Amino acid sequence: MALVYVDKDPWLGEHDACERNYREIMELFTTRSRERRTSNEYARLSSKIRLRMKQYSSEVYQLKEKLSVSSSLGSITFEEAERRTRLVEQLQSREIQMQQAFQNKDEAAARDRSALIKPSVFAEAGTTGWGTDEEEILSVPAPGVTVTDMRQQQQEILRDQEAGLEELSKVISRQKAIATTINSEVDFQNDLIDDIAQHADNTDAQLNSRTAQIRTISQKDRTCVYWVIIILLFIAIIVVAVV
C-alpha cells in the first residue's frame, strides 16, 4: 500500500491551524487581563474566549479521530503515527492549561460578585435631612438660638443630604455592576448549552468514524475469504490434473 506524503498531508495543515488558534486564545487572555472584571469588555472577551476554547477542543478531537483512522488503515507509518500522537497529547495538555486558567478567572469573578452583593452601607448612613428636615429648617427657633446657629444647622443638614446622595450613587453603580455580572452569567449558561450540542455532534462523528472502521474491516475479511477459496480451487485443479 502506498504511503501518504507527509508534507502534503491535510492532517498537518489542520494541526497548524489548531496551533494558531491556541496562540490567538492566549492573546485574548492577555487582553482580558488588562480589563476590569466588572466591565462589559471583560465579559465580551470572556465569552469570546469560551467560544474559541470550544473550537480548539473540537479541532483537537477531530485530529485525534483522524489519526486513529489513519493508523488503523495503515495510511501512515508507525513512526509517523507515534509522532502525531505526541503532537495531539501536547495539544490536549495546552487545552487543560487553558481550562484551568479560565476557571481561576471565573472563581475570581465569583468573589467579586460576592463583594458586590454584600450589605449596603447606605442604610447605615441614615436619612438625616430627608422627610422632616424642611420642618426643622422652617420651625421657629428655640429660645436662646441665634440666626448663626440656625444657619450652621441648615448647612449640616445639607451636608448630610449630599452624603446620602453620594451613597445612593454608589448603590446605583453597584447595582449596575451586578446587572453586568448577571448578563455574563447568562452568556455562560448559553455557552454551556452550546457545549452540550457540541458534545452530541462529537459523539455522532465518533459513531460515524467507528462505523467506517467496521466497514473497512468487514471488506478486508471478505477479501481474505475470496483468496482462500481461490487457493483451494487451485489446489483442487492441481490434484485432478495429477490424478
From TrEMBL:
GO terms for cellular component: endomembrane system; SNARE complex. GO terms for biological process: intracellular protein transport; vesicle docking; vesicle fusion. The keyword Nucleus does not apply. GO terms for molecular function: SNAP receptor activity; SNARE binding. The keyword rRNA-binding does not apply. InterPro entries: Syntaxin (IPR045242), Syntaxin-8_SNARE (IPR041875), T_SNARE_dom (IPR000727). Residues 155-217 form the T-SNARE coiled-coil homology domain. The chain crosses the membrane at residues 224-242. Keywords: Coiled coil, Membrane, Transmembrane, Transmembrane helix, Transport. It is found in: Membrane. This is t-SNARE coiled-coil homology domain-containing protein.
